[in-house]
Amino acid sequence: MGRDKALLTYAGGTFLEAIMRAVSLAGIEKVAVVLGHNAAGIQAAVDLAGVQVVVNADYRRGQTSSLQAGLRALLAQSKVEAVLLCLVDHPTVLPSTIRLLLERFHGTQVPLVVPTYQGRRGHPILIDHSLFPELLGLPPEAGANAVTRKYRQVAELVEVADRGIVLDVDDPGAYAALDAG
Questions:
Q1: What angle do helix axes 15-25 and 95-106 make, rounded to 10 degrees?
Q2: 155 close to 131: Cβ distance less than 8 angstroms
Q3: Which of 13, 36, 125, 133 stands 20 to 30 A from 44 (CA)?
Q4: C-beta of residue 2 within 8 angstroms of C-beta of residue 172
């Protein structure tokens, strides 16, 4: 992207603020934000009051190292039933989508709840605590999808009317399209 995705603007704030707002409006009270590159700059620019900030010093090792850092931090403080894995480059996810994922999780005994939009899987995904050991055991170069693919057959797929779950802002063209939309 050429600049911090967390600080890109969307809906009157930053990507990170949009995600935190959606999570909060969905009723999730315990939130951990994992920062890597430019952690100090992001902390200075975004109000992170009320969330647990985890700085991943090994962020260069990849996204899995950030997931693991966040999981370890959450588990160190309390028992965690599940995590909702939100990616900073998916800032348009609706609170109603998150609530639906939570409802489906609580209504089933599945280890993984994945939203779909017009048949395409997206983010955020909800991961049951039973998968934490496998996620924590992944080598940093492996993606978390190594675990989520393993449980694909037992995952609860939730069709949503929220295009934001598949709207991945990874480059300037995608960002320009987001602003235009």
A1: 50
A2: no
A3: 125
A4: yes
Residue 6 near residue 42 (C-beta atoms within 8 A): yes
Domain 5-180: what homologous superfamily?
Answer: Spore Coat Polysaccharide Biosynthesis Protein SpsA; Chain A (3.90.550.10)
pLDDT tens string, the chain, 181 residues long: the values are 678 899 999 989 999 999 999 999 999 988 999 999 999 999 999 999 999 999 999 888 888 999 999 999 999 988 899 999 999 999 999 999 999 999 999 989 899 999 999 999 999 999 999 999 999 999 978 888 889 899 989 999 999 999 999 998 988 888 888 865 5
Which amino acid is located at 103 in the chain? Answer: E
Residues 147-170: b if buried by 16+ CB within 10 A, e if exposed = bbeebeeebbebebebebbbbebe
Distances in whole angstroms, Cα of residue 118 to Cα of each of 14, 41, 156, 163: 27, 37, 15, 9
